[in-house]
């Protein structure tokens, strides 16, 4: 029996003949479908749903590769100040360092202020951004802007792009930023000056964050509930592919322009996504797009080669409040949602800051910069696999809490375990070595081999990867569909503060060598405590109870249903008696 007949037979028209067409009957039935039940009916691994899963996760390669190329194209070049005095002028000077000289009057001058002076680079001038655009000495801080402006662009656009996604659908707001990012990155590769590079790097950041954020929501809304715990698997793999690919290409390409072009050109392969990417079924039903729902079910049934019983996929709960289009300001109508937003935003700040701090400075993990870089990327694969197992057997909150705690403990071990290769730097009279105060008692401490001590930063990276698999599930699942993208956009906007600040964390070393890591430790422990007061969402009943609480506060003043079954999925009972145990359980 076809899905049209199922719908028509489930709720037949009771109007007189001719007053209500068969099509209008189908419309009413489509609007009462439960998207999760429809997706589950196609199976845990429905082929059409898996295509969307692969598409939305494959773009992580582009995000990772365009971000992780930055440590290589912004490397500090080897150079010296080369001074050519004018003809007939005899000028005596003493070189202080590669940026400054001292003349015969004991005046200290910078190389850039001396007429006829220039920076002479030992390597090819085009090997890095710093050497081609003279981002050294007085301008050395400008190099960090390349990574930071990318994140800043994403931070500013996140609330806007997600709002547009709620209004116009996930598909277009996923594809348009994707293609804008591809074009912008290609322009960066041929930028005539650093300002043009930063402008298009900013645009690329805007677009990349857009397709990444919307892609995540589209992925969540396109797979069966039974599959959601497996969502992080492909995302972790594709991210690591992009991460490692940046290092592999660096081994073969030294010119920064060709390297940046090489990491950007794969984006052209996403052109077919325009025809392959479907709209979110959740969004179609929520926004009453009956034709879109019909097309999705028809295409999915044909692709999956299965006819699903739509009469069994009707929504059993009256959630009409979710059908209203919500805006940024609607979030502030719900106190519980505002608190939920602030708590998750803080956690995202810590997650972002930690990830990018560990990633962008991974070349400093070992004497061989490429070893540290590759290991820092590769460890994300086992971390993703571990996350899948943990998410299957444990609650989202438990996984997030343990991961953030282990992240903090790993950073502490990385800081204070003495390394064998630096033990000769200790002054046993009590002087300071890199980040550690040496005392006579340290003579009794056995030094740790550098290869072993490198385990702890990598363990912190693995912990961070695991929490990235669990925490987005936790706050995305707990947000109603009508406000989900707005919520995720605002949370992402605030969370990207960590990404923007991460490239500058190293400057805290001016206060103390251990300051950057200690900041991460303290903030990670605070985040772990915050996770304990968030609502759990692993089971369907947990999600429904929390969403109904949010919906009722969003709809305050509107007409509400007096039927208890509208609030608890048909099981009866009052809302408070169901909400309180869940909100305060395991805290």
UniProtKB/TrEMBL annotation:
Its main location: membrane. It is a multi-pass membrane protein. PROSITE patterns: MFS. It is found in: Membrane. GO terms for molecular function: transmembrane transporter activity. Residues 52-539 form the Major facilitator superfamily (MFS) profile domain. It comes from the Eukaryota. Keywords: Membrane, Transmembrane, Transmembrane helix. The chain crosses the membrane at residues 51-73, 174-192, 198-218, 230-252, 258-276, 334-358, 370-394, 401-418, 486-505, 517-534. InterPro entries: MFS_dom, MFS_sugar_transport-like, MFS_trans_sf. Pfam families: Sugar_tr (PF00083). GO terms for cellular component: membrane. This is Transporter, major facilitator family protein. PANTHER family: SOLUTE CARRIER FAMILY 22 MEMBER. Signal peptide: none annotated. Residues 1-21 are annotated as: Disordered.
